Amino acid sequence: VIRPELCGVCGSRIRFGKAAVKCRQCQLLLHPKCQGQCPGPCVPRPRHRIWPHEGVLADFAPTTPPLVPALVVQCVTEVESRGLTETGLYRVPGTEQLVREWKRRLLRAGGALPALSSVADIHVVCGVLKDFLRGLKEPLVTFSLHPAFLQAADIPDAAACSTALCHVVSKLPPANRDTLAFLMLHLLRVSRSPDCKMDVLNLSRVFGPTLVGHASADPTPLAIMEDTPRQCKVVAQLLSLPPDFWRGFVGTEQSLVP
């Protein structure tokens, strides 16, 4: 589940990121252990909201907090369940054809995502996440706030830089803010894995262009040249913010990962 839900049988809460069973006919949601007590007959209800092929992040987000798209949650959950011992996580590319195919399948499925456990190569899952974020109509930090993020990251005093970045993050649209927080907590866990050999500097180089991008959809060659090193600096500074700051938007780490 992507947001806390109540079990249709026992009435207790199913936590964010936990497995559940849903009826294809009426969409009734249950704990797996409650499946045998499922009431009937069911009354069909409309299927999940269909996702667009492209859009801004809010187009893919759920309607209740935390506003993190199911695709992002599922990719991160899969990476953390079996990828934190892989060297070069997010740096080593997955097979391009498989990345495209799985991204297409996930977008076509909308909110009812197929399991990623059948993807043998975890680098393909990483590629799907990066490709999804790159394919958004505007980067996670948004076009309008892009200059503010660059300026905040350039502040030489560490405390003032952190304060400025926290202020700019709070101005993001809710879905962008929650998703950025979710990703920062994930990337911090990746950076702490000695097997991955992906420290904050390596991760910022990978995710700078993806998360920060440019101030417009059609940047000039000069803007691309000037932005590239600053994109990485923004992500590195965001990863230096206290984890509790990010948890304030999406809850505890325990609630994010099953």
Distance between the termini: 10 Å
Q: How many β-strand runs?
A: 4
C-alpha Rg, in Å?
19 Å
- Could you tell me the strand content as a percent range? under 5%
Oligomer kind: single chain
How many separate domains make up the residues?
2
CATH class of the largest domain: Mainly Alpha
Output the CATH homologous superfamily of the largest domain: Rho GTPase activation protein
Average residue pLDDT: 88
Helix/strand class: mainly alpha
Amount of helix: 40-55%
CATH topology of the largest domain: Phosphatidylinositol 3-kinase, Chain A
Unreliable spans are 43-47, 253-258
Give a short account of the largest sheet.
Answer: 2 strands, antiparallel
* Largest beta sheet: strand ordering: 1-2
Helix count, per DSSP? 10
Outline, from the CA principal axes?
globular
CATH architecture assignment name of the largest domain:
Orthogonal Bundle
Order of helices and strands: EEEEHHHHHHHHHH
Description:
One of its GO terms (cellular component) is midbody. This is RGAP1 protein. Residues 1-42 form the Phorbol-ester/DAG-type domain. By secondary structure, the protein is mostly helical. It has two domains: 1-44, Wheat Germ Agglutinin (Isolectin 2), domain 1 (2-Layer Sandwich), CATH 3.30.60.20; 57-250, Rho GTPase activation protein (Phosphatidylinositol 3-kinase, Chain A, Orthogonal Bundle). It is built from ten helices and four strands; from the N terminus they run ββββαααααααααα. Strands 1-2 form a two-stranded antiparallel sheet. The chain has a two-stranded antiparallel ribbon with strand order 3-4. A hairpin with a 6-residue loop joins strand 3 (21-22) and strand 4. The radius of gyration is 19 Å and the shape is globular. The model is unreliable at 43-47 and 253-258 (pLDDT under 50).
